Amino acid sequence: MEKLTTFLAVTLLLTAQVVSAFVPVTGIINYPTTATVGVPLTLTAVVEPHDATNQTIMWSVITFGGIATITDGNIFTATGNYYVTVRATITDGKAVGEDYTYDVQISVFPHDLSGTVTIMGLAQVGETLTANISGLVIAPSVIDFDFGSLEYLWLRDNVLIPDATGSSYTLTADDIGRSISVEVWSTEIEGTVSS
């Protein structure tokens, strides 16, 4: 009798999921270190290495939060000039369950008052001169920025005229043949502009 041999063919299908190795964050670079009071600054940075597994940075103010805020996740705005420390956090940046953090110090500077001041009026005794401030600007430029309280000092041949601290000055006999100028500055912005 013939012996029948039966072969059973089995095909085994293995599915393997390839998981790439976790690449930890080793640092961040190219982050901002200066800001201007009242001017929104977008906080950005480059995560190293470029192929780190997690690269999303969350920003928070950790010192002097009273003069600085972060909105929309990365828009830094300071209301006063000083140094502010912000923290960049990358969730699971070092390892799964371990965040990567890096503190960045941002120097916040005030605006600068610049531009021109001219004197308007007739140069005769008894006439009133007025400081024309229409040429004043702030740097960097900000839409709808208030100059704050402007202060004035009137000078005769580069010497302060006593009690002449308003936006206008009435000429006297002491001013005949002299050079009259005015200095303007703000209580809110650094810088002085002279005519």
What would you say this structure looks like, in words?
- With 195 residues, the chain is an all-beta fold.
- It folds into two domains: 27-109, Sandwich (Immunoglobulin-like); 112-194, Immunoglobulin-like (Sandwich), CATH 2.60.40.2700.
- Helices cover 0% and strands 48% of the residues.
- It is built from no helices and 16 strands.
- It has strands at 27-29, 34-36, 41-42, 46-48, 58-63, 68-71, 75-78, 83-95, 98-109, 112-120, 128-139, 150-156, 159-160, 168-170, 180-186, 192-194.
- A hairpin with a 2-residue loop joins strand 8 (83-95) and strand 9 (98-109).
- The radius of gyration is 33 Å and the shape is rod-shaped.
- Uncertain segments are none
Count helical runs. 0
Strand content: over 45%
Tell me roughly what share of residues is in helical segments. Answer: under 10%
Helix and strand layout, with pairings?
Layout: E1 27-29, E2 34-36, E3 41-42, E4 46-48, E5 58-63, E6 68-71, E7 75-78, E8 83-95, E9 98-109, E10 112-120, E11 128-139, E12 150-156, E13 159-160, E14 168-170, E15 180-186, E16 192-194
Parallel strand pairs: 2-9
Antiparallel strand pairs: 1-4, 3-7, 5-8, 6-7, 8-9, 10-11, 11-14, 12-13, 12-15, 15-16
